[in-house]
Design brief:
Blueprint: E1 8-9, H1 12-17, H2 37-56, E2 68-69, H3 75-96, H4 100-121, H5 126-152
Antiparallel strand pairs: 1-2
Helix pairs in contact: 3-4, 4-5
Length: 157
């Protein structure tokens, strides 16, 4: 996918199931066509209860229905996620030693890398994406510094 294209892919039928695409009557589109007003009102009342939950539970969707974001295809983002997970595990050990400030700094630095890659992948212009990748690159230097100084301070081994 080229920079500037829509950053994720969602099939129309998935969007219709959530009622996010409206038909000419203002209701969510259905595949069965028009229904009587009474049937439609009953159906809408039944579906209204779970509608908000469906919209909020994106991570609980089956893989085939979940939106796919461009950054998920980037190998560098996958590697950055591994770094973030490693930093979180180290931060958990720091928490156990009641070194909360160091733990929080390590978590933030670890998340900064994949977050900036993901955010930049949603950019419309190539130059803007490059800027976010540069921020992510600088975050690596912050991460590297902490990995160098923490053993010196006796915080990790």
């Amino acid at each position: 996918m080229a920079v500037g294209e829509w950053p994720f892919y969602v099939r129309d039928d998935h969007v219709r199931q959530l009622g996010l695409i409206k038909n000419e009557h203002g209701a969510g589109s259905t595949e069965r066509g028009a229904r009587s007003g009474e049937q439609r009102a009953k159906s809408e009342a039944q579906s209204a209860k779970g509608e908000a939950q469906k919209r909020l539970a994106l991570s609980a969707w089956p893989e085939s229905m979940r939106a796919h974001f461009r950054f998920e295809d980037l190998e560098i983002w996958k590697l950055a996620c591994q770094i973030a997970v490693t930093f979180h595990r180290i931060a958990d050990r720091l928490d156990n030693r009641r070194l909360y400030r160091y733990a929080e700094q390590l978590r933030a630095a670890g998340l900064s890398l994949p977050n900036n890659i993901a955010e930049g992948s949603g950019s419309i212009h190539k130059q803007e994406f490059i800027q976010f990748l540069n921020i992510a690159r600088r975050s690596v230097f912050e991460d590297a510094y902490m990995l160098l100084v923490f053993p010196t301070l006796g915080l990790v081994t």
